[in-house]
């Protein structure tokens, strides 16, 4: 798997040749998971069905039973993910901010961890 790295501001990295890519590394799969979670359903004009179901299954009223299974489904549907080995999320009731606090994956290249993914 070859995956272009993101810079600190979340944009694609350019200008460094092969150093701008993850190649057959767990970080490539982790970044793929992060970008797949960041794509809201209906946001991509070429495929309105593709994307994370934030509005209907994660955020909002009466989503406590659907939010974590929806995120797990999206993560497990990512190329290179074999299993989720640890997962925790939290919802700040005051600010209504949702975050995936810990997400540890078993990928085809080894373990990978994402922490503090906020939405």
Explain this structure to me?
The protein has one domain (2-118): Nuclear Transport Factor 2, Chain: A. The strands form two sheets. Strands 3-4-5 form a three-stranded antiparallel sheet, covered by helices on one side. With 119 residues, the protein is α+β, with helices and mostly antiparallel strands. It is globular. It starts with a strand and ends with a strand. The mean pLDDT is 92. It has helices at residues 26-38, 54-58, 67-76; strands at residues 2-4, 21-23, 81-92, 97-107, 110-118.
Query: Any guess at the CATH architecture?
Result: Roll
Radius of gyration from CA coordinates = 15 Å
Gap between N and C termini: 27 Å
Number of helices: 3
Strand order, largest beta sheet? 3-4-5
Gross morphology is globular
Short structural description:
By secondary structure, this protein is α+β, with helices and mostly antiparallel strands. The chain has helices at 26-38, 54-58, 67-76; strands at residues 2-4, 21-23, 81-92, 97-107, 110-118. The two termini are 27 Å apart.
């Amino acid at each position: 798997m070859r995956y272009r790295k993101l810079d600190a501001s979340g944009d694609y990295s350019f200008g460094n040749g092969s150093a701008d890519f993850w190649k057959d590394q767990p970080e490539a799969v982790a970044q793929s998971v992060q970008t797949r979670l960041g794509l809201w359903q209906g946001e991509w004009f070429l495929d309105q069905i593709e994307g994370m179901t934030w509005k209907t299954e994660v955020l909002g009223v009466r989503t406590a039973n659907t939010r974590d299974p929806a995120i797990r489904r999206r993560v497990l549907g990512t190329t290179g993910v074999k299993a989720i080995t640890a997962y925790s999320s939290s919802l700040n009731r005051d600010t209504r901010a949702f975050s995936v606090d810990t997400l540890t994956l078993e990928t085809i290249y080894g373990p990978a961890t994402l922490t503090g993914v906020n939405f």
